[in-house]
Every structure is written in structure tokens, then in C-alpha cells.
Specification:
The protein has 465 residues and is α+β, with helices and mostly antiparallel strands. It folds into three domains: 2-171, no CATH class; 204-208 and 384-461; 213-374, hpI Integrase, Chain A. The protein is built from 16 helices and nine strands. It has helices spanning 2-8, 33-38, 59-70, 88-107, 117-131, 143-162, 213-241, 245-249, 308-319, 321-331, 336-345, 361-369, 380-396, 407-430, 440-449, 458-461, and strands at residues 18-19, 25-30, 48-51, 173-178, 192-197, 264-265, 276-283, 292-293, 296-307. It has a four-stranded antiparallel beta sheet with strand order 6-7-9-8. A three-stranded antiparallel beta sheet has the order 1-2-3. The longest helix is centred in the middle third of the chain and has 29 residues, at 213-241. It is globular and about 70 Å long. The two termini are 35 Å apart. 30% of the residues are buried.
Length: 465
Amino acid sequence: MNLGLAQAFTVKKYSESWKSKMGYSYSVYRSDPAKTTAAGFGKVAHLPCIFDSRPGYHRLASRYLIDRGLGTWDPVTRARSKRKPPGEQSMLNYAHWLANFLEWAEIRQVDLLRCEYVLHVHGRYQSEMLLGTWSRDGEPLSAQTINLRVQQACDYLTWLGDKGYRSSFDIPIVERTIKIGSATSSTAHEGRQVSARKGKVRRNKKRLRMPTDEQLRAWLDRVYAQYGKTQGLRCETVLLSAMRREEVACLRVDTLPEDPRSWHINNLDAPYKEQRVLIDIKFGTKGESYGKNHGDKIGPERSIWIPLELAERLHSYRLNERVKALRIHISKAKSLVDKRKRIAECVHLFLHEETGKRLTARSLYDAWTGVELPFAGWSPHLGRDWWACSVLLRELKRHERISSLMPDVSAALLESSAMSIIRLQIQPQLGHAHESTSMIYLGWVGDMFGTSLAIQYEESLDEDE
């Protein structure tokens, strides 16, 4: 079976090999689904595989990815029960992290059937990434990158032991408590005990940096000037809705109901600036996959609020700029059949102004970062954080007399109010599965008010779920 599957990977769909100075190269491949299915491997047609430095199909690593991708093995249940398999992007990440470890092991001549955690994986692989001796540019890698790569190496070695290719791989663990509360949880304060790998690289406490209003406006003006109205509007959609860039790219022409009279507006009696419209998104959302539609992943559905002002601008774009772009796309049809096909396939809201084709998440990132930034590192992900911080600050300012209270009372009230806003507004909008992911905003508001908050949450911020 493995030989036939290797032969089916005749089309290099995605490869991001890491080439060392010694010329080694491990690559991640994805097959042409049609060819792989025709070869009799349709069940794994969506999964990546790894080719080694020969180059040749890496049998064990690719078999591991199949077991992970089909949910027949995972590091938690260890095949004692079947779990829902990871999504396609997760599997692609697993493949790249594992390929990096396999290449390191080959160059360092480490036998993976006999290596140990303390001596080799932690003592050498992790240490070399931390020192920068195993990195593309010779610089130390981030704690997050190191931890993800090492965890995947440990998972693979554990799998090898479970499958009988080597003796069991022992990983020292430590018990930690993380906060898992959500907008619907009444026991968020209790936390949950989890097992974490001992020896993980500790991340520095992340402190959010946000642009000033003047910096933000100037940056956005540059995006509009260089990349046009459509890309500018997409960037503003991130800022005003906190959607991920993939979610923005996957917005459909009817995500916002086409008839404004059917819009669900939160409070018609409120000032115009405070009115919001409810929409449902499911294409490109993070989490479990429920299939695909027009090339987009169908993920967990969630309802989010967008400002009425943004809804009206999206509606205006849909009636004007999008119609012009669609006409350009249709005008290139070579037949009536082709014309109908193009119309049927144009389901996305945002279309390229010159070609009429859908705009990808990558193009949003390129437009966002393709102009002078307010500061280094300003990204669409930070744009989501900007929305969260703006909401948190606005809502807290509604609470009167906070600054006039006694310092100890003020801190307690501020933290309580902030936690309620995070759980009830910010967490559902962002689609964060765990409360600990949103705790960074509590640290930010503490900085803004000059108050130390959420000491009890700090350790949760250092743990990867």
C-alpha cells in the first residue's frame, strides 16, 4: 500500500522544505486528490506526506500522518478510542514540524528508534533551536515555534513506541491548571487540570501594543491608496468585526442578508454609532471541519456583531464595486456554458477589481503589511486584538466612579467588569474556545488603568492547550 500511495503523490501541491547548510532537504507534499483517489487511496487524499533527503517517500512518518489524519491514533487516547481527526491545516502544520525534526535527526545522526527525551529531544533538539544553531538564519527561535516542533517530535516517537517500532518513549510531565471558562460557563473559576510536557520553553509574558488613532488612520489611508477600495474595506472589516483573515476571505455575497429590511439590528433606539447587525459565519472558521463548499472549509458556525455602519458599506460595495468586478469576470467567458459556470462559482463577497476572481486570505495579509506599518509586527491578527481592546476600553468607560474608588476596591471592580466583558462579548466574537486565550486583554486594560490585574491567570497564559 505504501508504495502505491507514494506513487500517487505525483503532483507537488504544497512544499516548504527547510534546507540546511549541508544540503539536506525534507519536504512536505500534498497529492492531486483526483489522482490519489483514482489510485485507490481516496480516504487519505487530503492528507500530506513527507519525502526525505534521497528524495523518497518517508514510510513511517507518512504512516504516522495517516493515523493522525484519520483519527485512529492521537497522543491523548493512544488508539484506545477513536477521536475526531485534526483539520487539514493542522495536519499540514504537523507535517512541517515533523519534517524539521526528521531532518535534524538525520543531520545529527540521531537514531530515532533508540533516542531519549532528556538526552536527545530536550537536551539537543530543543537546545539547538533555543541557541539558534538549528534555525534558518542562526537566530534563536521563538518559544512557541520550539514547543510546537518538540511536541510533534514527542508525538511521533510515542507513536513509534505504540506501533512497536521502538521501545516506549517516556516523556516527563507536570500537572498544571488552566482556565477554561467561556461565555456560557458558570464554573470558569474552577479551572481544569492538564498534563504538560516538562521542560517546555517558557514564553515571556506578552504585552499588547496598539497603534494610536492617528497611526491607525494613516496606515489605513496608505492601504486604500496603494491597494484600492476593496482591499481597504477588507482590512477595515477585520478591525471592525474581529474576523480572522480567512473568515473575511470566505465571506459570501449573502452572508449579510441582501435585503437591509431583514437585518437583525441590536437596538434601533440606540444612537447610530452604537447599532450593530448580527451575521452568521461558518466558512473558513477555525476548528472542526464539516466538509468544503466552493473550496472553503466549512467550520463551526458562530454569530457575530458588526457595526451598522460597516454593514451599510459592505452592502454598498456589494451593489457597486462587486457588480463591476463580476461583470469583468463574466466578460472573459468563452461560451454561454462558461458564462453560467462563472456566475455560479462567484459566491464570495470580495472580488478582485481587475479580474473579478475571489480575493484570498493571503492577498489580505499582503495588502495589510504591504505599506508602511504603525510599528513592526502590526498584522491582521493584531487587528483582531485591536477590536477586542477597543470594545473592552469602551465598555469599561461606561462604569462610573471606578477611578474615584479606593485602589483595592477599584482593582477588584475593574477586574470583575473586564472579565464579564471578555466572557460575554469578546470571547464569543473572536471565537476563542478557551478563556485563557482572551486573558491577554485583561493585562492590557490593567496597563491602561495603571492597575495590576489577573495575577491568578498569568500561568494560564504560558500554557499551550
